[in-house]
């Protein structure tokens, strides 16, 4: 979108990777003008000597990139709420400030999570295929039956901003009980009548398990064989957090063996998921291409916030959203 903050620059695509140098006097902007992610070689070349970097979740900002940028680099602004694509320890060591985009994608991600949950539980993708392929013949008592939210127990792993937004949207569907787990009990959970329980309790009692936690050393691979074995065989598993929270081989085995009923994923490892990945062979697994924040309004707000973070960092002033570490 047009960027009023830098009148001389009009990025034509949201997923541009932009390098700014020589600011604030006569800014020189190097722009990756493509819908495809910037190549590694171009990233290393483009960042050389830059004072600021605007990057995406798909750009790996590691020691090699930081070395290529050199001592001029003062600020990195990422168009994302997540920051596991950046070498935070190295960035901190070099005194580089980091801007990110929390809060603004909360509603969009929560909406997508609910949509994915319903599509998975009610087998909507399968239904569409049956209509297209001529499988829809006549009414049958149990054909394409799925699972409903009314009277169910929903477990949310990680009741942060997005987890709470998901819970608010699910309660009106007639959810009987809402469980949540995480590092601490949350006082604001009372709004959705949320009950704080150990993870094992949540996993074993929930009809729907929704993962909405951050990726940390503690949560990496959290959803593994032992995790899925504790779930009901009628349970629905949804992940819109980070792909690495789930052991996908274990998930495949749980789905293909009937250990759990179905799963919906908006995040995977890697991204994009290879077209020959075993999960894509399963009718009871719905995989989306990481579109949690993909609304026009949300991406526009993210772009503006990223630009404002970058410019504030270059000016040495307070960022609208600075990552404190």
Structure described in brief:
The chain has 325 residues and is α/β, with parallel strands linked by helices. Helices cover 30% and strands 14% of the residues.
Can you walk through the features of this model?
Residues 28-322 form the D-isomer specific 2-hydroxyacid dehydrogenase catalytic domain. Keywords: Oxidoreductase. It comes from Oncorhynchus tshawytscha. 30% of the residues lie in helices and 14% in strands. It is of the alpha/beta class and 325 residues long. It has a 7-stranded parallel sheet with strand order 8-7-6-9-10-11-12, with helices on both faces. Helix 4 (106-121) packs across helix 6. The longest helix has 20 residues, at 296-315. The chain is globular, with a radius of gyration of 22 Å.
Outline the low-pLDDT stretches.
1-16, 20-25
Structural class, by secondary structure, is alpha/beta
What is the makeup of the main sheet? 7 strands, parallel
Strand content: 5-15%
Overall body shape: globular
Record field, number of beta strands: 12
Radius of gyration: 22 Å
Mean pLDDT value: 91
The end-to-end span amounts to 31 Å
Q: Identify the strand order in the major beta sheet.
A: 8-7-6-9-10-11-12
Number of helices: 10
- What is the helix fraction of residues, given as a range? 25-40%
Secondary-structure element order, N to C = EEHEHEHEHHEHEEHEHEHEEH
Domain D-isomer specific 2-hydroxyacid dehydrogenase NAD-binding: 114-292
GO molecular function: glyoxylate reductase (NADPH) activity; hydroxypyruvate reductase (NADH) activity; NAD binding
Keywords: Oxidoreductase
Family: Belongs to the D-isomer specific 2-hydroxyacid dehydrogenase family.
């Amino acid at each position: 979108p047009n960027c009023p903050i830098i009148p001389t620059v009009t990025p034509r695509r949201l997923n541009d990777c932009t390098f700014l140098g020589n600011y604030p006097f006569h800014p020189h902007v190097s722009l990756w003008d493509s819908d495809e992610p910037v190549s590694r070689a171009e990233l290393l070349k483009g960042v050389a000597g830059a004072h600021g970097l605007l990057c995406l979740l798909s750009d790996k900002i590691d020691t090699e990139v930081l070395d290529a940028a050199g001592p001029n680099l003062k600020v990195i602004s990422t168009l994302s709420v997540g920051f596991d694509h950046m070498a935070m320890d190295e960035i901190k060591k070099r005194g580089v400030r980091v801007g990110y985009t929390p809060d603004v994608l909360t509603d969009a991600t929560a909406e997508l999570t609910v949509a994915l949950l319903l599509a998975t539980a009610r087998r909507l993708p399968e239904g569409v295929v049956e209509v297209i392929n001529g499988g829809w013949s006549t009414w049958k008592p149990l054909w394409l039956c799925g699972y409903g939210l009314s009277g169910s127990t929903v477990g949310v792993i990680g009741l942060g901003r997005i987890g709470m937004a998901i819970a608010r949207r699910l309660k009106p569907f007639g959810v009987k009980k809402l469980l949540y787990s995480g590092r601490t009990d949350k006082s604001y959970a009372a709004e959705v009548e949320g009950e704080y329980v150990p993870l094992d309790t949540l996993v074993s009692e929930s009809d729907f398990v929704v993962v909405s936690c951050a990726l940390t050393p503690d949560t990496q691979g959290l959803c593994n064989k032992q995790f899925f074995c504790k779930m009901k065989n009628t349970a629905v598993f949804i992940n819109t957090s980070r792909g690495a929270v789930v052991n996908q081989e274990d998930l495949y085995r749980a789905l293909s063996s009937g250990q759990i009923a179905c799963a919906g994923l908006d995040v995977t490892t890697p991204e994009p998921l290879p077209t020959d990945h075993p999960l894509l062979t399963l009718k009871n697994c719905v995989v989306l291409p990481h579109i949690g924040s993909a609304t026009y309004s949300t991406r526009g707000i993210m772009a503006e916030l990223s630009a404002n973070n970058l410019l504030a960092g270059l000016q040495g002033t307070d960022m609208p959203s600075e990552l404190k570490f």
